[in-house]
Amino acid sequence: SQSAKAADDIAERIGSIQSGSDEAVQATEAIVSIIASINESSDQITDAMSEQATMANGITANIAESSRGVEDIACSIAQLATGAEQVSENASNSARATEDITNLLNKVSDSLAKTAEGAQQLASAAENMQQVARQLQALL
């Protein structure tokens, strides 16, 4: 009978649709599983990137701190160089002053020697005058 045949045909089509639906559900479940796996991987990548950003910020902070330390050292070296230059200048000034004092002392020493020589000549002249005075007294 035609009705039975049509019912069988409809039942076969329904079975085919149900089979296709089952395959679609399985495919959808597989896609959902893949999307969940991708989301998990994405979360892991995001966490790793966040850790890397934190580490990069820490490294940047350490570099900035090191840079300040290097600047402080450079400033200290410049101050030491200035201090050394001033010490050198002061030493040079002291050497010139010592040389000037030595020259003055040499002049004073020369003057004292001339004064002593003059005093000896004066003493000798005084002695000569005493002898002449005695001789004159003896004649008188």
Describe the structure.
The chain is rod-shaped. The termini are far apart. The chain contains 1 helix and no strands. The longest helix has 138 residues. It has 140 residues and is an all-alpha fold. The mean pLDDT is 91.
Pick out its properties.
0% strand; mainly alpha; 99% helix; rod-shaped; 140 residues
CA(first)-CA(last) distance: 204 Å
Low-confidence region ranges: none
Counting helices, strands and paired strands, the structural category is: mainly alpha
Largest sheet: none
Helix coverage percent: over 70%
Task: Please give the oligomerization state of what you see.
Answer: single chain
Overall spatial form: rod-shaped
Round the mean pLDDT to the nearest integer and report it: 91
Encode the helix/strand succession as letters. H
Rg measurement, Å = 59 Å
Strand element count: 0
Q: What's the total helix number?
A: 1
What share of the residues does DSSP label as strand, in percent? Answer: under 5%
List the helices and strands and how they pair.
Layout: H1 2-139
Q: In a nutshell, what does this entry contain?
A:
With 140 residues, the protein is mostly helical. Helices cover 99% and strands 0% of the residues. The chain has one helix and no strands.
